Amino acid sequence: MSSTATAKKKSTARQDVGSGPVLDWAAGHGPVTGALSATTGAFAVATTGAATHMPPGWALAVGAAGALGHTVAGLRVRNAGRTLATRAASWLVGGGWTTWAMTHGPLTWAALGSLAAIGVGIGAAARSTALFEEAREEEALAAAERQIAAELSAERRAIAAEWVDRIQRVCSITVRVVGVEMWETGAGFSLDAELPPGGATYSKIAAESGRLSADARLPHGCTVAASPGIDQGRVIIDVTTVNVLAEERTYPTDYAPLSVLTGIPWGYRTNAEDILVYLREQCALVVGPTGSGKTNMVHTILAGFARTVDVLTWVIDLNAGSAGLPWVRPALTGRLTREDGKPVRPGVDWLAGTYEEAVAMLDAAVRIAKHRKTAYQDLLARANTDLLPVSAQIPQIMLVVDEGAEILVSTDRQMRKLGEKILEVIRIARAMGVRTVLTALGATGSVLGNLMIRREGKVRVALTGGETEGMDLSKMFPGARGLRVDQAPYKGAGFLGTPESPAALFKAWRILPNQIREITAATSDRHPVLDAVSAKAAGPAYARRWDAERTAWMGDQPDTDTGDDSATGSGGGGLNLSALRSEPTRPGSAEDELARRFREQIDAEFATAPDPAPPAAAGGGLNLSALRREPEQDSPAQRAALALLLAAGTDGTGASAIARALADEHGTTRQTVVGWLKDWVNDGTAVRVGEGTKARYVHHTNAPEQPPQD
Ligand SMILES: Nc1ncnc2c1ncn2[C@@H]1O[C@H](COP(=O)(O)OP(=O)(O)OP(=O)(O)O)[C@@H](O)[C@H]1O
What we know:
Elements: H1 2-17, H2 31-51, H3 57-76, H4 81-104, H5 109-171, E1 176-182, E2 188-194, H6 202-206, H7 209-215, E3 224-228, E4 234-240, E5 264-269, E6 274-277, E7 284-287, H8 294-307, E8 311-316, H9 325-332, E9 350-352, H10 355-375, H11 377-382, E10 396-401, H12 404-408, H13 413-428, E11 434-440, H14 445-448, H15 451-456, E12 459-463, H16 473-476, E13 493-497, E14 504-507, H17 513-523, H18 532-538, H19 540-543, H20 548-556, H21 577-581, H22 590-606, H23 624-628, H24 636-647, H25 655-666, H26 670-683, E15 686-689, E16 696-699
Parallel strand pairs: 7-11, 7-12, 8-9, 8-10, 10-11
Antiparallel strand pairs: 1-2, 2-4, 3-4, 5-6, 5-14, 12-13, 13-14, 15-16
Helix pairs in contact: 2-4, 2-5, 3-4, 4-5, 8-17, 9-17, 10-13, 10-18, 22-24, 24-25, 25-26
Bound molecules: adenosine-5'-triphosphate (ATP).
Adenosine-5'-triphosphate binds next to helix 8.
């Protein structure tokens, strides 16, 4: 039925456009259906024609027209002559038989027998032409492929000949190129060559890298790098022809899930291939002077962790938390929503911007590592390993400490204490799945003089950005030869070495706040939840990490991540966190309300760690149980409206102002807001103050005469 409908539609379409024949001469038939269709068609025409005394010449005319139609259609699709002849012959034979049968009567044994024979004949001929067509098509494809391969191998042969000459000219040795591989990225090629007999080594070519590049007139930033081949008589020569380090490449937009076990991309090499780092057991050190692109690199690293299914990222940044804030603020202010309208979980699991919070975080990390050691004994025994099997159920904790290396070598007493805790994590927590990424402003001796960093932090990055001061590459990458700071004079570029991939040039992807928000939203539902064993060890310090008094500082930060989250002016475009903080803390206050929103979004929605110490009902801390009795807000827009109401403080706000603030992001109308305000007045969430045009709504916690709670 549907095919009839489609056919109808097609024929209508053809008639509509008014071009081409109504009969579809190109319509497909297999050998059997074709033969059947031809013979049954001919039989039907012959019987009805004979019964109605149709002039037999008509059948012949139809056959001739069919033959002509099919030939034209066949020529159009470039059928072989053999196919055209078979089809035309089928039509002509069919037409001829019909004419003869109409004259002599179709219902005779002679007519029926000959029709059957014609049917079998048409079927066999159609089958053979179909096979012939298929073979012809395959041959054409193979010929096209052969042509491409010939062109490619001609290009490769030309490259090989050119480089044999060049190496002869520059290095005075004659190699024999046995293979040329063009890189898929299009950024260059590799030569596999045999060294001449007589004891020449690959290093003879490696030593002339600069002269070879000059002889080949490679663009600036492109290199010729020689390395050992499959045996000592072979050499691999990598030639970059496009300087990908000079380009600004943004973080790839494929946010597919990753795992700490299968590697996390941190940037790309000169051949434009991604570099993966493996941090299950390794710690990392990222060195970059001011302006080298270190902050950007940290965001690239956090993006990689956010994409994993088995990593929880904890960030310490005593420099106003700037490294972690773009990963937290958009989610906590409720400005981000997922496609299904649910709130978004922050892109990092814990952010410490103050000394006290950093101490709490490091203590929790140490407790987790120690407790995992005993609590997972059975699991380790069953898996027959001393390395905790990290998974989405038992996630690895990646502790990212911005300028952490400076903390380690600080002479300040407090900082030294913090440094000791960081070192303790590095020392004791490898097997139990807590690793660190430390950044440093310079690769000074005092940073790399630390044995623990040298031993545990073998994933190393030096962002140079052309800076030579404090950049001792030989200390960062001992044993690596020929690394020069001036090879990577671009921001975000430098050297990266891991135990799996020797130190070499690389560049980090550029990542901007809008992409950070995009990644935060895209990865929100894949972050693991801290396992119960670890959450128990981490205690309230972890469970209450998003409490208002501990996150209030985040609201104080100048908003650099977007233009629409102004930290000033109530009833404006976003959540006025600093306005909330100016009020004294009291149960049921605006700060508690904010905490309720944060906790609702993060703990309730995503069921993070259980709260091991629920606060007392109306104690000095948060009265969460009381607050949780407040009616739930249905949508992110409604929650944002409530936040605006709160932010408006004792001045209050109106439906128009709220609707204006929500219009861009949520498309909320004034009428909708009027409805919510009415509901909130009815259930006591909001209080209406003033009359007529002066009528305003204030949150009940800000109402002039606040009715006693509970
Ligand atoms: N991977 C990159 N690709 C292209 N440009 C980059 C990259 N990383 C950084 N930059 C450029 O360098 C500038 C400085 O980057 P970033 O703020 O990350 O450096 P920084 O080392 O943290 O400096 P500071 O310590 O002063 O903040 C950026 O504004 C950007 O223009």
